[in-house]
Amino acid sequence: MTDAEPTLYVYGVLPASERRAVTVAGVEDSGVRTVRHGELAALVSDLDSEALAAAREVRAHWRVLEEASAGATVLPVRFGTVMESESAVRDRLLEPNAERLVGLLRELEGRVQLNVRGEYDEERLLRAVVSGSPQVAALRERLQTLPDAAGYYDRIRLGELVAAEIERRREEDRAVALERLEPLAVSASTEAVTGTEGAFNLAFLVERGRLDRFSAAVRGLAEEVGERVRIRYVGPLPPYSFADAELTAGEAGWD
Amino acid sequence: MAAVGAPTSRGYLERPRPSGLADVIDVILDKGIVIDAYVRVALIGIEILTIDARIVIASVDTYLRFAEAVNRLDIAHTDDSQGLPELMESVTSGGAKSKTEGALEGVKEKVFGDDDEQEKEKEKEKSGRRRSSSSKRSSGSSSSRSRSRKGS
After folding, report:
1. How far apart are CA A32 and CA A245, in angstroms?
2. Measured between CB atoms, does B151 come within 8 Å of chain A?
3. Which of A160, A184, A213, A249 is 20 to 30 A off residue B105, Cα-Cα?
4. Is-contact A84 B76, C-beta < 8 A?
5. Which residues lie closer than 8 Å to A188 by C-beta, 6 or more apart?
6. Domain spanning A112-241, CATH class
7. How many Å apart are CA A45 and CA A24, to the nearest integer?
8. What is this model's ipTM?
9. What is the pLDDT of residues A216-235, one digit of tens each?
10. A166 and B25 in contact by Cβ < 8 A?
11. Where are the domains of chain A?
12. In whole angstroms, what is the distance from residue A181 CA to residue A211 CA?
């Protein structure tokens, strides 16, 4: 090949023994193929353009990995990874990292990721904070009698107390969730909570064969904390949170 | 194949319905194997994707917002407000989003739309793009990622 070789978008890495093709469209509506090297295969698409529209392509990235991982173990590569050529995928990704990638694939074989997120209803949460903390309730009472300008620092203080109380509740609820679910998982990962309504955000690596038991435990948790936390249960997903290795590829070859 | 549950009376989401992108977007953007020197090459609009509700609970603005929200509560109703009608309502409405977060949520929904709205996305992205300059989170930085993986 000459310099006309296309750049490649890389979705993930899976065992070369995996033969089923991905049928959904990839980034830029392109087809998805594999680049093979030894025991490994990289899922890729040829790219035409220099730049990708992220909001659109993140969906393609997700779709491809979802389908590929329906029956196989796939290591998702971070969204937005583009390599300059097929030989770069072999020589910079698969070849130098073969041992690590094969090891990760073995470790994750037969396992899927389940995300369990807890969310508060903000108003109900704040009511609970006020009624549960005499300090907050008292400061709130006092502020009601002051004009806004006069109470500036008190308002900051009130907000600080509320934030601390919310954080304490978060920690409690996260601990309960971990206690109930972690025993049924191979591994657990605590992820950042997004938004003020977030209670906890947990990722679990679970054996496919234990999915039903895990789901039952999630149901149990939801019943236990349902008065104050709404649970979102998502999966099975490719093991995004458990395949977050950083690989060395050296200098990208297109500069 | 991923599924998000549907609401039950206890607020638990039981499967199945296909998970929306919004449910997994954090995972997709922040997780997965990183091949150094190759991440996020030539992506347009990545900043928009990262303006989600990553609110840090440690700023004066946040405190003032909380104070305001707490002050707004109609506390006279506190004692009996946890009754069944309200509980059911907030469950069926999908856990009423707070108004103050509306702007950020709006951006997210605007960018992603519904699952079948792919055609509109490029257009939407353009209109959302001017917001990217206000992103506090650099798309290229990996230092802010949480790495709390257990075991190996």
Report:
1. 23
2. yes
3. A160
4. no
5. A178, A181, A182, A202, A203, A204, A205, B150
6. alpha beta
7. 12
8. 0.77
9. 999 999 999 988 999 988 88
10. no
11. 7-109, 112-241
12. 11
